[in-house]
What we know:
The chain has 6 helices and 7 strands, in the order βαββαββαββααα. The chain is α+β, with helices and mostly antiparallel strands.
Amino acid sequence: MSGGPGQQTLWVFAYGSLMWQPGFPFVEARRARLEGYHRSFCIYSLHYRGTQQRPGLVLGLARGGTCEGIAFRVADENAPAVRAYLHARELIYGVYREARLPADLEGEGEPQRIDVLTYIAEAGHPSFAGTVPMDRGAEIIRAARGKAGSNLSYFVATLRKLRELGIRQPDLERLAVRAGVGGPYAGASGPLVLEGRCRAFSIRRGAKCSPVRHDRRHAFAYRRRLPS
């Protein structure tokens, strides 16, 4: 993967929880823009921020538009372990697809074009929510909770990071109002810790994570239990 010092440098593009809790070591973090996709609450979460009985809503990259986020540059010697870590963290039940896409690093002067590793939403997967009406999305986010904590804390952490970066996204700001997130995105909220299947990255242990079981029946069966 090109970009940075050397032609095989790994850059990871973060647009959701990876922005505020990457969980892996990196040597550089830069604002970046990805064309052709936008950040959207378009994925039902059955693991980290919801359950099969009460799915949550988490962010994915949906087709169309642009997305501003963070590109993390990973040291070459850590790249294989970081990719293994991300695979275990992100590819739990197939609703995300790993992709290599061009992105522009922002900074002084002209943007620098690089290739990034990121995770886009699979529109054909049953956990793909598509465009959820705003009131319904706010209701889901307020109520859902999974192995990594509440859906609302995920939303607040993302809003806080976007605010810190100076990234405006009006639809998320409107959703925040509907979800009852007031003030400067609930700035008094305490520290947020990613729990769940894949815990802290460790260089010495090679980013070992518990095996992830891709149970297709598990992924496809939950829709008939979604609350109306």
